[in-house]
Amino acid sequence: MHINKYGFIRVAAASPKVRVADCDYNISEIKSMIDRAESEQVQFIAFPELSITAYTCGDLFLQTALQQKAVESLAELTGFMRSKPSMIAIVGLPLLLGNRLYNVAAVLSNEGVLGIVPKTYIPNNNEYYEKRWFAGSGDLTVSSTEICNRRVPVLSGGAIFRTPFALFGVEICEDLWMPVPPSSKLSMQGAEVIFNLSASNELVGKNAYRKSLILQQSGRCNAAYVYASSGCGESSTDLVFSGATIIAENARLLAEGRRFSQENEMVIADIDISVLRSDRLRNSNFNPPREESVQVIDCAMEPVVAEKMHRQFNPHPFIPHPENEAEYLGEVFNIQTMGLAKRLHHTGTERVTIGISGGLDSTLALLVAVKTFDLLDLPRKNITGITMPGFGTTGRTYNNALELMRRVGVTAKEISIVDAVTRHLEDIGHEINLHDITYENAQARERTQILMDYANKTGGLVVGTGNLSELALGWATYNGDQMSMYAVNASVPKTLVASLVRWIAHTEMEEQARKILLDILDTPFSPELLPADNEGKISQKTEHFIGPYELHDFFLHRMLRYGDSPRRIRFIAQQAFAHLYPPEEILKWLKVFYKRFFAQQFKRSCMPDGPKVGSVNLSPRGDWRMPSDAVVNLWLNELEN
């Protein structure tokens, strides 16, 4: 697979075995790891600080023999890299520039040494004595040096290395620990990936703090952060080094290597450059100050073809990880509750009306209302739930609706719509046995009229039940269930609705109510607008007509959160759902998604108020402003090519 074509690059953080001051051995290990990385189609690989000599050489750094051998070893490695047209390697060494010694990172490709980046901040406290040997980049008096019979730029203020696939910058160890790391400026200047060559010794509790710094810096910089630290073979005279290797992306941990290993350690990850660029595009503050400039080094690089992805794609991006489930779902539930509470307070009403179908969405809306009324110390009887059986209502959903209302203690009403809709269809001259869109929508609008009028009668508000997934697909009747006075589920996608109801069932409900909720969760999604089958079961199953909600929620998240192209969504969906849906089925439902999403915008343009709960929202007053008559051809055509 052409990962670069879809916006990914492959990076590695390596911690090789070293021998102190044995450059030949160290270069041999570095070469072996580069070969291994090449076999894995790695494009960028970072090694630890001073990896050519080892970090713990002490006063040996001041010996001319070691300095010269380090440069000779760099030349050897440069020659080795000439056969690697698809890889860039970053290694550390001591380098004499002018009359000062510097701790530097050398960036290598098949073109040679592309640039030298000196360490900016030199630690000189506690166990660190680096100023005894090294100067900081602020002391530089040269802008280039000769390596391998070629003038190489020395980048005192940092630099951006520009490849065909990503822009990257380099910082060294202590730089990360400073209040304003060099990577902060580099990222503002365009660097999408930061490589840190480090030699961070181990102390009790230090690893967790170090990891938090890496994750936070990748988040602040909206970048990927590749961290490689010294390990096996460093001197243990006074310190121990564990060989920590970490790859993070925008505050997310992608890969972490084994520490305290006696072998070469390397972790590999695929960085999503396209997502990083999308996030920066949306952040209007992510622009460099005009007066500042940064040197840019162009790097030639060939693409790679990979057999597999070194990255996991979450097929259910709206559903929290089990470790965070309680906190995440609790927050969603509280946001919904507080939103409704504020609306009741503002309007001065103490009553609401909800249509209860026995389905998942109306169940969640009812549970939100119940919690809201408990929060406001209002009687639950002020919540009127109305179930409105029609032509397609089954006994299962009918009984669940009534029993749920009874169990949670709200006022329950039953108003059949059969006679009213039959009369209405007769009035407009529509054949009762013609089960078309008119037949279906007449029922939805009749139910909405009942809810609105009853709310007017009792001085209450109609609480909407429709969810984000239905809004995206337009799976709602215009001026029917699309309309309400406050839509508590408006930014909750279908997959999250199910997770919320299940969580509420297990954490906040007594046994009998829990059983009802679990049965509702097992009920097929359906608007029940068509007659039941011969066995009295639901015949109109939503996912049969529009496709699996888990796929549509995935498509929606990729499109709105990251601005992904159709081709890229298709590629990522094939990775995420590799064992669930064949590629042709993913393509089929992706086309359905785009067609419906574009055709149904007019319903979203006049959607009622509702609270935003996550990063994806379709409110025309919030995250999504789209003309109702936009043409979908561009998106569909890309899927055909």
From TrEMBL:
Entry keyword set: ATP-binding, Ligase, NAD, Nucleotide-binding
Family per similarity comment: Belongs to the NAD synthetase family.
Residues reported to bind L-glutamine: S200, K206
Binding annotation for ATP: G355, I356, S357, G358, G359, L360, D361, S362, T465
Gene Ontology CC terms: cytoplasm
Reactions this protein catalyses: deamido-NAD(+) + L-glutamine + ATP + H2O = L-glutamate + AMP + diphosphate + NAD(+) + H(+)
Active site positions, chain numbering: E49, K119, C173
Alphabetized GO MF terms: ATP binding; glutaminase activity; NAD+ synthase (glutamine-hydrolyzing) activity; NAD+ synthase activity
Binding site for deamido-NAD(+): N441, E470, W475, A476, T477, Y478, K603
GO biological process, one term: NAD+ biosynthetic process
HAMAP family membership: NadE_glutamine_dep
Gene name of the encoded protein: nadE
Enzyme Commission code(s) on record: 6.3.5.1
Organism: Petrimonas mucosa
Recorded metabolic or biological pathway in which this protein acts: Cofactor biosynthesis; NAD(+) biosynthesis; NAD(+) from deamido-NAD(+) (L-Gln route): step 1/1
Protein's name according to its UniProt entry: Glutamine-dependent NAD(+) synthetase
Keyword Coiled coil carried by entry: no
Signal peptide: none
Domain CN hydrolase, chain residue ranges per copy: 9-273
Domain of life, source organism: Bacteria
Summary of the function given for this chain in its UniProt record: Catalyzes the ATP-dependent amidation of deamido-NAD to form NAD. Uses L-glutamine as a nitrogen source.
